[in-house]
Design brief:
By secondary structure, the protein is mostly helical. It has one domain: Ribonucleotide Reductase, subunit A (Orthogonal Bundle). It is built from eleven helices and seven strands. A three-stranded antiparallel beta sheet has the order 2-1-7. The protein has a two-stranded antiparallel ribbon with strand order 3-4. β5 and β6 form a beta hairpin. The mean pLDDT is about 95. The structure holds fe (ii) ion (2 copies). One fe (ii) ion (FE2) binds next to α5 and α6.
Amino acid sequence: MNIDYNETIPNNVDLADDRRLLRALERWQPAYLKWWEELGPVESGNLDIYLRTAISVERDGWANYGHVRMPEYRWGIFLAPPEANREIGFGMHKGEPVWQSVPGEYRSELRRLIVTQGDTEPASVEQQRHLGKTCPSLYDLRNLFQVNVEEGRHLWAMVYLLHAHFGRDGREEADLMLLRHAGDPDRPRILEAFNEKTDDWLSFFMFTYFQDRDGKFQLASLAESGFDPLSRTCRFMLTEEAHHMFVGETGISRIIERSCALMREHDTDDLSSVGGIGLPIMQRFMNFHFSICLDLFGQEKSTNAANYFTMGLKGRFQESRIDDDHKLDGALYSVPAVENGRIVSHEIAAITASNERLREDFTLDSQRGVNRFNKIVAEHRIDFEFTLPHAAFNRGIGAFAAINASPAGEIIDDAQWNRRHGEWLPTDADKEYVNSLMTPVIEPGRMASWIAPPRRGIHGQPLDYDYVRFH
Ligand SMILES: [Fe+2]
Ligand SMILES: [Fe+2]
């Protein structure tokens, strides 16, 4: 089914047949556009950007590429096609047909899941809004805006569910999505990692590598949901999320590539005189982003998580591929804990441990890319290895929140932490240096000094294509 872009809100959910819902969303739309103008990408109103837009939700051919004037981008509502006779795959309702409307008894839990996910989407747009001014190339500028418009669309996806299925409180929650702001001391975004600054491109690539990967794991477990509209919208969002992580992984890889080349060319580890980003600085940024993302998964042991699973609202990552009863009757899972100054592990009811399990899935997935980063370093015959810090490092939530630990997972006291955290987390000097490199490069095909060109352009276009046109 192709999407009709002549409608005010392009969609594949038959909005035209539901006048009340359509009117409600049409009332929300101007507030969204105003938010985009005020808190979306700065100074983007005059740009024509080579963007992909969803034109169908079928497996291939969903995306159309072309130059779009930024404010004229059309955000729409797209759900993956329904799966015939889909059944709930886990929890106490396993084997029952999926729900097309919200079961009354699970209403508040479902609303909370949707609001928490939805809140991260506009948050990331706000966090990234200044990056366009310092893009390392037109190719990267285009990718930034592609990510931004899709995060805006993800907000639309969640707002649609709130409007369509939660009545008045859903509409109120939709309004609140535009009133909380990343880093706002009075009305911050719900999750802490989405209040942090993302004001340089190294942070942006780390963000799209780690925070967007958190998004992948959250969306994948919501895609298992017994509430079918949530499942379908998450399945479509995952196709977009994959591109965000591609931007992150290739961005980090290109910086490593360039740094290694500069190290060899100038025979030095100190890249500050040659306009590159040293690998230890990158490691510190990685430590920061990875550790704050671990917090996004919540407490190791969680009754909320247990309820979401039992109720059939949020499954495990790739639930159907797991070989067990999908009810977790009597099953155990080990989670970390701190006892007498030592890290130990405890077996708890698996049903209460699904946050921990998802965090471990995320860690494994993150590690795969880090292995690829290390391959680049090794190809340059440079003696350096990126590592993900231990789960105990720099944590604000869960078993490790009360202690300090080194990236190697060794518990240390406050004095040692204060003395050494500058070795492990980005220092003011790191941030200042990275920021000093952030000068815009907007000549087609040219790259900033600190990043290698990408392997290929977007959608078969050459590297020196004018991915963004200025007026
Ligand atoms: Fe998203
Ligand atoms: Fe994303």
